[in-house]
Design a protein that fits this description.
Layout (H helix, E strand, L loop, with lengths): L1 H12 L28 H16 L1 H14 L11 E4 L5 H14 L1 H15 L1 E8 L5 E7 L4 E5 L5 E8 L9 E3 L4 E5 L14 H24 L3 E7 L6 H16 L1 E4 L6 E4 L9 E5 L12 E4 L10 H14 L15 H36 L9 E4 L5 H18 L7
Helix pairs in contact: 2-3, 3-5, 3-9, 5-9, 6-8
Amino acid sequence: MSSILRRVSRLLRGATPPRPTTAVGLENADTVLLGLFADTGGGRLQLYDDVERMDDECAEAAAALDTIASLASASPEGEETPFRIEWGAGTPTGAQETVEAAIRRARLGPKTFSFCRDAAKYGDAFLEVVLDDALAVVRLKHLPARQLFREEGPHGQLLDPAFTQRQYPGGAPLVAFHPWQVVHLRWSHQGERRYGRSHLAVARAIWKRLRPLEDSMRVARLERGYDKLVHYVEIPPEASLAEAQKRLEDYRRRTGARLVHNPETGAYDLLRQAPTVRTDFYVPVSRTDAGAVAGGDIKLLAADNAQLAHVEDVEYLHRQLICALRVPAAFLGFEREVNARATLAQQFAEFARTIRRAQGVLAAGYRQVLDLQLLLHGWDPARLDYRIVWPEVRVEDERVRAEAERYRMATASISPASR
């Protein structure tokens, strides 16, 4: 690997680098120069933790990421690569073959979905350019976003090493990378910020407020949402407190216990659960002078729980969450949020612009890889006229196609006997 790095450095800079650095480890990690304004990454890493939880626990967030990545990486029918290279007139055939071969070897087409999804999720995707002995790009390797740090100078210029990998912010660098070794996809990059901005950044705060409300609503429905029985157990007036308690326990054991087979003894044991808010209530009573039990033997305690029907605050935050995800509600399965046709078309148009911006982020990263491949094979990319072209984004057609497929599968699942 060190020999490959030296050869590439000679081609790119015309000289051997002063300090040998590899993508496997550092020969002398203490001498690596870090950026003058190094970012500790604390806030960035906290955001990474939150968006990972959202991806795991929030169905709307996961569906939004899948939808964006799917539309951005959608290939024309029957093709593997979602983009094509458009060459200017007079471009040498050898340069064209060099680029097309690199795209096939690195499998940029099939991997576009995961590259796009990671960039949208974290705001950053770090991809290591892997070369073989012939200096051909063979792979773009995912690097852990939480361990990669971008090393910049006071004016935002990349240093050398340009990226370092560390176990934690401020720790000694484990691996260092030259600028050409890492493709940094920065989602929604703003101004002079060092890193990108997650697509879930705004929705993150809303989700943190919504999640406790949903949890409390679930607990309330499980704990308080069902009817219970009130058992009035007769206790003689002359009974002591200990005798009254014993009568209650005997009654509960007879009515609430169940027989459970014990495989160790081969017998049946009497199992009784401890009282909770989900169990019935037991109230001691005495007979009246007329001989009747006060209140009746067993009564139904209806669980009206009117407060559980008031979920306006949850719905309000959920609407905010859908808005912050910037994906039309129809794509997330909330058909009741879809209103007028004109509004729907406007949402689709804005979403199409989001997809095109995503493709622009991918195109910039792919252009870096292809320019490097051309340089390593003796072609000056500055003198070549080529660009990466993506198919037209038509999110409405994709939605209609997805709905048609869903209905087709639902229809196919109906058995002839049930028709």
